[in-house]
Every structure is written in C-alpha cells, then in structure tokens.
Amino acid sequence: MAKSFRMRHDAEDWFSKIKNQKPPLNTKFDLYYLCLMMGLASKSYNIPAASNSTDFVEYFVSDYQSQQNLIIGLLIQAELSDKGLSLDDKSQTKKILKDLIDPSSITNLTDYGIDRMNAYASGGFDYLQTKTPQPYYAEEFLISYVRLLQEEMDNYVK
User: Fold this and answer.
1) Is residue 145 within 8 Å of residue 34, measured between CB atoms?
2) CA–CA separation, 5 vs 57, rounded Å?
C-alpha cells in the first residue's frame, strides 16, 4: 500500500470552523496544502505522530493535479535548502531527487518523499498556529494567511 498524505487531528480541530465553508475550502487537501505551503516557506517541519494524524488520500486530488510537479519542485527546493545545497552540487542534488522522486508512483513521490511532505505540512500547521488565531471565517483567515506567507517568502529569498 502506498503512503498517504496525513492530516494531524489537532490541525483538523483548529480548522474545524472553516473547513466546510465552501468555497474556497472544498477539500481536506485544501487545508493540507495551506499547511504545506506555510511549512515550505517558513522552513518548518516535524514528523507527525501516527497516533495524532490520519491518512486521508494517497494521491493529489483533482484540483491540485495540474500543480503536482510545482508542489514537488517546492519540496525539492526546501530539502536542498535544508541541507545547505544548491542545484550546482550535482551529486547531492541527484541523491535528493532519488530519495524523493518515484515516477512510477501515483504521486511521483517515494514513501520518503510523502513523509517529508507530511512533515512540512505538520510544521506549517505548527507555524500557523503560533502566528494566527484559530480561524472562524475562511475569507478573513485567507487574507491573513496570504500576508504571512508573503512575509515568509520574502524571508526565504534573503
């Protein structure tokens, strides 16, 4: 069985007031994606405990399939940055690609790649939780989320 994307129980609780406000948040993957992007931007990650998380899908849902390669590219960049590497270090970059990428899987990720993505989503949730109050209205949350993500992206390139 393939590894799955995982959502922490406390993240589901934290997002509980906005997760059914459709649109813009139509799926659990939308919430996972928000956490993942914040984790990648803030360079925050931690391994979610199996007892505190639930597998929810083994593939990129349809709304994200067209962005799958971009998301994987951001994961690769984050892993290179975490290890202090650049694309110029060909042998180390190749090793990281091999560790993360599996073109024969439905996600194009290895089990380790899925684990790393889940770790960044978990870290992104922790980061969000410390920087913003629990959301009650999706629109208000998304406005503050975009500001915070922009700040982190500005810091990322420095």
Assistant:
1) yes
2) 6
Q: In whole angstroms, what is the distance from residue 102 CA to residue 111 CA? A: 9
The three-class DSSP label of residue 18 is: coil
Nearest to 124 by CA among 16, 36, 9: 36
- Joined together, the tokens standing for residue 123 give 């870290």
Angle at CA of residue 48, ends 44 and 102, nearest 5°: 80
Crossing angle of helices 111-131 and 138-156, in 10° steps, is 110
Across 131-155, average pLDDT: 91
Give CA–CA dist 139/117, Å, rounded: 26
pLDDT digits (tens, 9 = 90+) for 37-69: 999 999 999 987 777 888 889 999 999 999 999
User: Rounded distance, CA 95 to CA 107, Å?
Assistant: 19
- Sign of torsion over alpha carbons 140, 66, 153, 117: positive
Could you give the CA distance from residue 125 to residue 135 in angstroms, rounded to a whole number? 12
